[in-house]
Write a structure and sequence with these properties.
heterodimer; A: 129 residues; OB fold (Dihydrolipoamide Acetyltransferase, E2P); 3-stranded antiparallel beta sheet; 3 helices; 9 strands; 34% strand; B: 457 residues; alpha/beta; Aspartate Aminotransferase, domain 2; 7-stranded mixed beta sheet; 4-stranded antiparallel beta sheet
């Protein structure tokens, strides 16, 4: 069973979100990295770019596939994790420290629609069968 | 599911599932005037009845003999060069004889190694970091480069590309057809009528946001653009630089990777001059190279070198996540074949010539063009049009209509050049002539002599 920290919020498309004030930090879950396999390249969005909830805004490329990462909330990108350019494998080894981008929330109520750890564990478990 | 053709029942079930009555209904979008009714008798009336092999052989030999072997001074994007006999002897060996990178590619280490060597040669010739394993042809490689530039240029969100009118007219037309439905516009930059190149002084001070500038080198007139100034100008406006090159010319000229302060970002072009015969127009192949930073936006196959479990060198397809079998609709291109056999010939051709040989081919071609230009412009009624250096082509102006002159030369078994009347009417009776290393003094003399006679009539 994959690791699903209780303090984070989740999406059905396997992003995790940690919120600090009006800024959400986004990465992909342990379950997602396990499905995708060894990461070889992470394409992060541009700082200053605006996305709506559900827009594809980053790409995680593994030896098996290249998958879009969807913005869990609407807002503007305020910071990206440049360290991933040289160390994409950190998403495999430490998915909850290896965040992809930080986005400034334009509508905090969108957070209410996200899954908690319990609900996401259910999604991930269904996925594995 | 068994691998068998669809039964009538399968077809009915599929049509029912998508709510269509008959297969023909799927083609409703095609205007009826363009469709052939297969139920009509005889079906496909324009297709002749079958013939026995002996008669087909006689027919094709008869047609082939009509080709003749004229003395050719036409360039305009496809160039006659000497191809050492070994090139196609090796290329058509059973081990190499395929148009494609093989399926289960890694089982064909020889083919992959050859493609890897090709990429290395191309990257070296263009001064770029990486090359792909080829595209369809020069024109579509420009289209792919334009699409790539729009994807890759993250500073500019523009879908505007500046394209000099000195870029091959067919390339511009092809690129436009491919990119326009994606909202990308190709905006023309006009050239200087005295010099035949993009005059840097004419570049707009405030060009607005654009994703890339195309720089043809040499340009369609054979003329050398001011590549350093153009490259720096584009970069200073946040745009990428797409070089469209003749690879043979790069044997002699400055590699795009060294243009200006930062070098071109992408290089595309027609690979035919490297070992591929004119062959009535194809098959040719497109080349594409780029800087390392852009490699994930590059279309086409890329072969990489690695080591196996025992530490021995091996070759493998790499960065496949860009490609359509993995990335599906978001692939860098859904035209992801290559022209493997042509690339095989090119690689062997370049290996036989070597860097020094390629340089000599380029230098001799240039020298022959100069000699031809001198002989032709000595004729009363023939003028040299542009006053800038050119590679192995030049534009001349005739005192009489070009079409008549070309017809008269053709009766003497000489293909005199490419008429610019349709694409560049502003140049008047202009003819684009080319002389490669395949021509000797007697050939040049013969052209000049016949042309002189036509003017004397």
């Amino acid at each position: 069973m994959s690791n699903v920290p209780a303090e984070l919020k989740y999406t059905k498309s396997h992003e995790w979100v940690s919120v600090d004030g009006d800024v959400a930090t986004v990465g992909i879950t342990d379950h997602a990295q396990d499905l995708l396999g060894d990461m070889v390249f992470i394409e992060v969005p541009d700082v200053g770019a605006n996305f709506n909830k559900g827009d594809d805004c980053a790409v995680v490329e593994s030896v098996k596939a290249a998958s879009d990462v969807y913005s869990p909330v609407s807002g503007e990108i305020v910071e990206v994790n440049d360290d991933l350019a040289d160390a994409p494998e950190s998403v495999n080894s430490d998915p909850y420290q290896s965040w992809l981008f930080k986005i400034k929330l334009s509508d905090a109520s969108e957070l209410d629609e996200m899954l908690d750890a319990n609900a996401y564990s259910g999604v991930a478990a269904d996925d594995s069968h | 599911m068994p691998f068998v053709p669809h039964t009538e029942e399968d077809i009915r079930a599929m049509l029912e599932a998508i709510g269509v009555e008959s297969i023909d209904d799927l083609f409703d979008e095609i205007p009826t005037a363009l469709r052939h009714d297969l139920s009509e008798e005889p079906a496909l009336a324009s297709v002749p009845e079958g013939l026995p092999e002996s008669e087909v052989s006689r027919l094709m030999h008869g047609r082939a003999s009509e080709d003749g072997s004229p003395l050719c001074f036409i360039g305009a994007g496809a160039y006659e060069h000497h191809i050492p006999a070994a090139v196609w002897e090796i290329t058509t060996r059973g081990e190499f004889y395929s148009a494609y990178t093989p399926y289960q590619a890694e089982a064909s280490q020889g083919t992959l190694q050859l493609l890897y060597e090709f990429q290395t040669m191309m990257a070296s010739l263009t001064g770029m970091d990486v090359s792909n394993g080829s595209l369809y042809d020069g024109a579509s490689s420009l289209a792919e480069a334009v699409l790539m530039a729009v994807r890759a240029n993250r500073k500019s969100k523009s879908k505007r590309i500046l394209v000099p009118r000195t870029t091959h007219p067919h390339y511009r037309k092809t690129a436009d057809a491919i990119v326009k439905n994606q909202g990308i516009t190709l905006e023309e930059l006009d050239y200087d009528l005295e010099t035949g190149h993009i005059n840097p002084a004419s570049l707009p001070d405030e060009p607005g946001d654009f994703a890339a500038l195309v720089i043809p080198y040499p340009n369609f007139f054979g003329v050398l653009e001011d590549v350093d100034v153009l490259t720096d100008w584009a970069h200073s406006h946040g745009a990428l630089v797409i070089a469209v090159v003749n690879p043979v010319a790069l044997g002699l000229l400055k590699a795009p990777g060294q243009w200006g302060e930062k070098g071109a970002d992408m290089v595309c072009g027609e690979g035919q001059p490297l070992g591929v015969p004119l062959a009535s127009g194809g098959p040719y192949y497109g080349l594409m190279c780029c800087k390392q930073a852009l490699v994930r936006q590059m279309p086409g196959r890329i072969v990489g070198r690695t080591v196996d479990l025992d530490g021995k060198p091996g070759y493998t397809l790499t960065l496949q996540a860009r490609e359509q079998h993995i990335r599906r609709s978001k692939a860098t291109s859904n035209i992801c074949t290559n022209q493997g056999l042509m690339v095989t010939a090119s690689t062997i051709h370049m290996a036989l010539l070597g860097a020094e040989g390629l340089k000599r081919v380029a230098a001799q071609s240039h020298a022959n063009k100069q000699a031809l230009l001198e002989k032709l412009t000595a004729i009363n009624g023939v003028l040299n049009v542009f006053n800038r250096p050119s590679f192995h082509e030049a534009v001349i102006q005739l005192s009489t209509p070009v079409a008549d002159v070309l017809d008269a030369l053709a009766t003497e078994n000489i293909l005199g050049g490419y008429s610019l009347a349709d694409d560049y009417p502003e140049l008047g009776n202009a003819l684009l002539v080319c002389a490669t290393e395949t021509k000797n003094d007697a050939d040049l003399e013969r052209y000049a002599e016949k042309l002189q006679r036509i003017f004397n009539k």
